Amino acid sequence: MADQPPENPTQLPLGNGAPPDNLIPIDIEVEMKKSYLDYAMSVIIGRALPDVRDGLKPVQRRILYGMYEAGLRSNRGYRKSAKIVGEVMGNYHPHGDQSIYDTLVRMAQPFTLRGLLVDGQGNFGSVDGDPPAAMRYTEARLTALAEVLLHDLDQDTVDYRPNYDDTSEEPECLPAGAPNLFINGATGIAVGMATNIPPHNLGEIVDAAIILVQHPKTPLETLLETVQGPDFPTGGIICGRDGILNAYNTGRGHLTIRARANIEVTARDRQQIIVHEIPYQVNKSRLIEHTAALVNDKKIEGISNIWDESDRDGMRIVYELKRGEQPEVVLNNLFKHTQLQTGFGMIMLAIVDGQPRELGLLQYLNLFIDHRIDVIRRRTNFLLRKARAREHVLLGFQVALDHLDEVIRLIRQSRNPAEARESLRERFEFSERQAQAIIELQLQRLTGMERNKIIEELAEIQRKISGYLEILDSDKVLREIIVAELKELKKKFADERRSEIGPPVTQLSMEDLIADEDVAITVTHNGYLKRTLVTTYRQQTRGGRGRIGMGTRSEDFVEHLMIGSTHSYFLVFTNLGRVYWLRIYDIPDAGITGRGKNIVNLLNFQPDETVQAFLPVKEFIQGRNIVMATRNGVIKKCDLSVFKRPMSRGIIALGLDDDDELISARLTDGDHDILIATSRGKAIRFHESAVRAMGRPARGVRSMRLDSDDRVIGMIAVLEDMLVLSMTEYGYGKRTKIDQYRLTARGGKGIINIKTSKRNGNVVSIMTVTKEDDLMIITRNGKIIRIESDKIRATGRSALGVRLVNLGESDEIAAACVVPESAEDGDDDKKPDPQGVLIQ
Fold first, then answer.
1. Which DSSP letter does residue 641 get?
2. Is 137 a residue of the active site?
3. CA-CA distance, 463 to 456, in Å (whole number)?
């Protein structure tokens, strides 16, 4: 039994078995809560959050006060930062020299504060993130703006409290003649809360404060006509006002800040993006390094070089673009992927009456004005007490001067100063202070001139006392003083805005990030899809061997080729008569020899569904038509607008017979002739008005009668004064004037288009060309050749044609397309598509 523990485990026995008298039982949960709460409040009040009255955290206030006590005024010499830090740490802030120096440095950085509070001499860091020099190398003094915050500190304007070791006192806050909290902003992370107040323009905040002093019931909407928004020391463009309005109303809001950039053209005919201002708190050096890494990783395209030309005259970051790039697209990519566009979360949190509070613009200005009213009242009371004390002495002098001979006699008869004071007090009813001042009065003050000065000084003191009493008795007069001081502050320190308030940023779409340029889109027999810039393919003469246009497997070959803009919509028509919707920029750019991506990974095709036609469309304009042709000679026309909202699984474009399939689709404007060609060298031309417009599920009507071994291989929408280019599977072709194809009725047998023979093979492609057009031909083995159509001899309809491509063994022509002139020039607002149809 003797070895059992005591019933209360906190009462540990002494050596003699008795529990100690100095142990107190404590609940560990209660103690942890209390201790953590004490710690949290210490961080919130004593370190991390600024006071709403002077906008300073304790360490900032102690640095400024320490420099003020050391006499480091803006018109005096500098002093080593190490000495300032040592004095502040030893007297007011015993939390480490480095934290004090870091704060001192921040108050001296022109890219951090909108209004500097410390005038630094030496290296105080840079916007590139360079660290400041050690405190033993730098020097500092107060700025004129900091002196405004400290002004009247010796006139009992604020309360003082003991410092950490009770050896001296420090102010609880500064008189703050300027609304520093909003001028310079504040950042800080406390326990469970944080503040992030952006800097503002001094002139705007002061003007708003003046309005509120003169008209205390002014609504926020009126103040917003004066205060545009934050004004960052690094400039930049604030996108939109919604975040600003939210913050000024509720104390919280979110800003989007963009760099200020413009586009220049160099002497080498290259374009450059020049950045003059970057968002607040962005490290310029890291920004450039990050951008360079994105360019190297191909996440940002179009930039050939980046360099920094910043100097003492200002910032200048140069992004040199590759030839032919669109600078707006590159800039949008920079905004999306780099810190040229950043967010700033505004949390207007400050200490008010010892408690953290979120403040809107109106609440802060009212609290600042209340602080200034209190400071001016206390200053006036201090000056009033001082003036009355002087008046009291001067009134004694006045009485003494009126009875000068008697006063001199009483003093001469006294044995010591104490007896003289007592004699004067008994005779003239002077106070102790008056009697002492009369005894200490110099003989020179008894001359006539000096006596007049005493009388004048008394009158001046009494006039001041009347003025002080008027200030204390009249709220209007007191507010007029505040207004006058604020106007003087603005006159001395206000400058122009640096940050522009721009339009809101809309969500960047893929179009904003991709250049609008013409590309060649290829689809293989097995469905691999890719896009390649048209300018990639060099021009060759007739009969050339071509170049590799894409890599294919031995069992695959290129089947379709089309030209379109990266910003166009892409209507994909399949053999089953369905249409799918795709953006050309969604098609992968796989390079010259890449296979690309299988189209089944881009679109939700049905089983056994293959692509037969692509139509690049800028806008779905009502009144324009899509004309479709099938292998068995059926034709159908639909209004373009009915295709503007396809579903992801596709929609029906036309109804098909069981043994039929769609082979072509073309855009028309309602006034075209349609030319349909067959594999056996036949063609028919008729006006599209011969085909009435139908709904999407309709089957269509007959375009021409076909022989049993024939099938339709192509359809074009005819433009005037163009040539029809026909191409056979073995690499032969010819151009024929369109007027040689006579206009007939729809549904006939057609006329000869090109002779099919053993040399030529069957017809594989038909299109319209002009003399200025270039022709792109692709073979089933994936070779591409680009030739001028003018190099192809123009012949009659029944001619055999000339060789266009020297085909390799077992190779055949797969597809061909016209490259429009504007695909390279980029000058035309309206350009012909590969089949002679206007694309707007």
1. G
2. yes
3. 11
Q: Which residue has the tokens 């598509």?
A: 833
Residue among 463, 336, 334 at smallest CA distance from 387: 463
Give me 394's structure tokens: 């001067």
Q: Classify strands 732-737 and 802-803 as parallel, antiparallel or unpaired.
A: antiparallel
Specify whether the CB–CB gap between 182 and 210 falls below 8 A: no
For 402, the token pair is: 């009126």
Instruction: State how far the Cα of 112 lies from the Cα of 121, in Å rounded to an integer.
Output: 16
Interval 456-467: pLDDT, tens? 889 999 999 999
Q: Tell me if residue 608 falls in helix, strand or coil.
A: coil
Residue 737, amino acid: K
Phi, psi (deg, nearest 5) at residue 291: -65, -40
Rg of the chain in Å (alpha carbons): 44
Strands, E assignment, 43-168: 79-80, 118-121, 139-142, 160-162
The answer to whether 340 and 244 have CB atoms below 8 angstroms apart is: no
Q: Which residues does residue 613 pair with via DSSP β-bridges, in sequence order?
A: 573
Express as a percent the part of the chain with pLDDT over 70: 89
Q: Which one-letter amino acid corresponds to residue 206? A: V
Query: 372: which residues sit within 8 A by CB, 6+ positions away?
Result: 176, 177, 482, 485
From the list 612, 617, 594, 575, the residue with the least C-alpha distance to 530 is 594
Write out the DSSP string of 680-744: TSEEEEEEGGGS-B--TT---EE-----TT--EEEEEEE-TT-EEEEEETTSEEEEEEGGGS---
Catalytic position from the list 36, 39, 137, 160 = 137
**Strand pairing class (763-769; 751-752):** unpaired
- Phi first, then psi, for residue 335 (nearest 5°) are -60, -40
State whether residue 679 is helix, strand or coil: coil
More reliable by pLDDT, 563 or 111 = 111
Q: Which amino acid is residue 391, in one-letter code?
A: E
123 vs 121: CA distance, rounded Å: 7
Note whether 76 and 141 are within 8 A (CB).
Answer: yes
The three-class DSSP label of residue 312 is: coil
Report which secondary-structure segment, H or E, holds 464.
helix 448-473
Question: Is 414 within 8 Å of 438 (Cβ atoms)?
Answer: no
pLDDT number for residue 829: 37
Q: Is the pTM of this model over 0.85?
A: no
Whole-angstrom CA distances from 708 to 12, 237, 680 are 112, 70, 11
pLDDT of 758: 81
* Beta carbons of 611 and 560 less than 8 angstroms apart: yes
Helices (runs of H) and strands (runs of E) counted in the chain: 19, 43
pLDDT digits (tens, 9 = 90+) for 560-615: 677 777 777 778 888 898 888 887 777 777 666 777 777 777 788 888 888 788 78
**Average pLDDT of the segment spanning 433-438:** 85
183 dihedral zone (left: phi>0; alpha: psi -120 to 50; beta): alpha
**Contact call for residues 493 and 145 (beta carbons, < 8 A):** yes
